[in-house]
Prior knowledge:
By secondary structure, this protein is an alpha/beta fold. The chain has helices at residues 10-17, 19-32, 35-42, 56-72, 81-86, 88-91, 110-122, 137-141, 160-176, 180-197, 200-210, 225-239, 274-286, 300-305, 322-339; strands at 48-53, 75-80, 99-103, 128-131, 144-147, 215-220, 243-247, 263-268, 290-295, 308-311.
Amino acid sequence: MTTAPSTPGAHTHAEILSQPACWKECFQALDEKDHLGQVYRRFPTRSDWLFVGCGTSYYIALAAAASWTKLTGLRARAVPASDLLLFPGLLLSGPEPCQPVLISRSGHTSEILKVAEYLELKENIRTLAVSCATHQPLEEISTATLYLLPADEQSTVMTRSFTSMLLGLQALGAVYGQQTGFAEALRRLPDQGQKVLDPLPSRMQEYTQARGFADYAFLAQGPLFGVANEAMLKVKEMSCSYAQAFHTLEFRHGPKAIVSADTLITFLLSETGFEAESEVLQEVKDLGGTTLVVTNVADGAVRRAADFLVELNLDVPEYARLAAYALPGQLLGYFTGLKKGFDPDRPRNLSRVVILNDKG
Ligand code: F1P
């Protein structure tokens, strides 16, 4: 399924489909130069880690912070850059300085640059940047940068940069936590992810052609919550649809009022929370909701309750599967946008980088 460059969404389409190959290239680049080892030697381990970003990069931060704690046993939080700028006292007041990790595909976003300046110049805290671009302002301000250069995109909407920067940070977490088994599993993901991706575009295209929805909700818990937020953002950005993200079990506490056949409720089912999350899935189905389910392995009840089921069948640990969970949401946003007559390469009102004037 190749698209000519002039077709609407051609860049985004190619970038979504390139992901497994891109992940492989990213790991090769990181390993060849011992990039992760260099970062590890440069930044001593600290008891508190703070992952910072804007938009998609903030959702990477959420998934990376959860992964970091799992891999290293250390405390890790995620915040949008704006919160650090407006409420620094809430985030930097611990007994020991935290280690900030500043995530930005472009390395140009105003808020992340202001955070870097504030931490490096005013607070004298060394920052690690994570980016898909070189020769940009963030690398000049930060102490060091972890590069995922093969993942940069032409599109405004971030797809492979989300999954690749997340995988890069997980690989770094595996170095800090000395989790060699996990590090190896991450490097097996590209081949296994390709098998997940191959049948998905045609299935998703067919489904979005057949069905339209007034509303979208994305549900997940723990390390998958950031991925659910990212899926929500993809559907909003590419298809200008109303979309929200919730913790799966929180959905019972009010949000379930939106359940109807015209609302597509996507469940990213974890292995750890499988039973409890599946119960919410069943409840939503009983209420007449339409469901899209992404899970590593389904059981009979999940199969019956899923209108659209994506089984990943990945032979890697639970936290190494996060990037693969992002694929269905990207394709849902892409094909829904095309169906609604939008060009996913040119999302309405958005620019590739948010650059604010001084007043901003
Ligand atoms: C992040 C970001 C994107 C968003 C938009 C503007 O930029 O907020 O997530 O889709 O196009 O930029 P970056 O700091 O990662 O470059």
